[in-house]
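Most newcomers find our protein records easier to grasp once they have seen one. A record pairs a protein's sequence with a compact description of its fold. An example says more than a description, so a record of this kind follows:
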Amino acid sequence: MRARMALYVSGQTCELREVLLRDKPLEMIEQSPKATVPVLQLEDGAVLEESLEIMLWSLKRNDPLNWFEPEIGDRDEMLALIQAADGDFKDNLDRYKYANRYEGEDSLHHRSEGENFLTLLNDRLASQAYLFGVKPVLADYAIAPFIRQFANTDRDWFDGAPYPQLQKWLDGILTSEPFTAIMTKYPVWQAGDEKTYFPSLDGRG
């Protein structure tokens, strides 16, 4: 999601190949033996295999909404907060959401551990609408997909949890154009299919 949002807002058009992770095509594995999504192959043959890496590549080419320019703090502070989300918080998210994949793990323990990051974000949002000021920037859109996953693991719990600022922020991100514009469903790609472009060349998302 976050890679697609950055591609969308920066105006980078690519050929899209939607895949099922339970049935990974050989062409994907040949491009990226890591075999996880997203994968972006550049025109020069280089391959980007991490969503944040794709976000940064896209915005360095074109940043029309100034996602790299926070009102409060600077780019390094944004990247540090994103790294916190991608690190310990993501580890706890995975063990909360997919506890059955991790032998001996207690999902509620990892939910509690993950709340440390939720509290941090909620406190930041107590005095400002977004994580770095009055408008959303890179950190907001890089972190929101993980908070969405955390929230949807037990939506009743999240909606009743004491994080009103975070809940309002998440709703704002999920109803914003960069997010809604990338939620189009695409057919699963197979070799020989006609090319699908993202964003579409006709401008309809």
About this structure: The chain has nine helices and four strands. The beta strands are 14-16, 40-41, 47-48, 196-198. The longest strand covers residues 14-16.
